Amino acid sequence: MTNRFSLADCVDANTFCSFKTIKNMATILKSEDRNFTENPNKIDGFRIFTDNSRNANGVDPENLNFDIRLLNPGQCSAPYHFHKYAEELFMIMSGESTLRTPNGFEIVKSGDMMFFEKGESGAHQLYNHTDSPCQFLDVRTYIGFDLCEYPDSNKMFIAPSNEIFDKDSTVNYFKGEEQIPEKWKHDWK
């Protein structure tokens, strides 16, 4: 529902507006309402939890993707990767972790923000090296698709289809197309 209002909705044009009933202004996700659930299909060393209160409150963003994540001790956020078509931003809300980037390793703590640009220079991975959970905000762009590359394991991931390929299986664009002109001669009548 789009909220529309005019100056007629204000007490008067020279003062701050005092709106009549306006619905769907803001959704507040209270910290005490957080409910972390383990992300499915993860393996030991990569078990991460995501707060599902956003979904429970009907927040379904069109252009701004975000989640609050919980990374327990001894776990990685994801395999080391970078996005070809998405930017990402983390903000540590509590605890600390070790951040891996192309520049090396660095401890990040509560209040620290990390921006990961598109491409190889934005490669990243968090590892919780402590004895306490680390909570972080994960904000990312999404234009309807993305391609992630995993330098350690030489994989490519295609979103949203969730297809994973070994980069070594890349082929020339025209592989297998060499005999197509002959096919046209024989099959076209």
Q: Any chance you could write out the topology, listing elements then pairs?
A:
Layout: E1 36-38, E2 48-51, H1 53-56, E3 65-71, E4 82-83, E5 88-94, E6 96-101, E7 104-109, E8 113-116, E9 125-127, E10 134-140, E11 146-150, E12 155-159, E13 163-166, H2 180-187
Antiparallel strand pairs: 1-2, 2-3, 3-10, 4-11, 5-8, 5-10, 6-7, 6-9, 11-12, 12-13
Question: Can you put this structure into words, describing what you see?
Answer:
With 189 residues, the protein is mainly beta. It has a domain at 29-143: Sandwich (Jelly Rolls). The chain is 6% helix and 33% strand. It contains 2 helices and 13 strands, in the order E-E-H-E-E-E-E-E-E-E-E-E-E-E-H. The strands form 3 sheets. A 6-stranded antiparallel beta sheet has the order 1-2-3-10-5-8, with no helix packed on it. The longest helix has 8 residues, at 180-187. It is globular and about 70 Å long. The relative contact order is 0.14.
Described by the principal axes of the CA atoms, the overall outline is: globular
Low-confidence stretches: 1-10, 17-22
For the terminal residues, how far apart are their CA atoms?
Answer: 57 Å
Radius of gyration equals 23 Å
What string gives the helices and strands in order?
EEHEEEEEEEEEEEH
Q: CATH homologous superfamily of the domain at 29-143, by name?
A: Jelly Rolls
CATH topology of the domain at 29-143: Jelly Rolls
Which structural class best describes the helix and strand composition?
mainly beta
Trace the largest sheet across and list its strands: 1-2-3-10-5-8
The helix count comes to 2
The percent range for helix content is under 10%
Largest sheet composition: 6 strands, antiparallel
CATH first level of the domain at 29-143: which class? Mainly Beta
| Strand coverage percent | 25-35%
- State the total count of DSSP E strands: 13
- Return the CATH architecture of the domain at 29-143: Sandwich
Mean pLDDT: 87
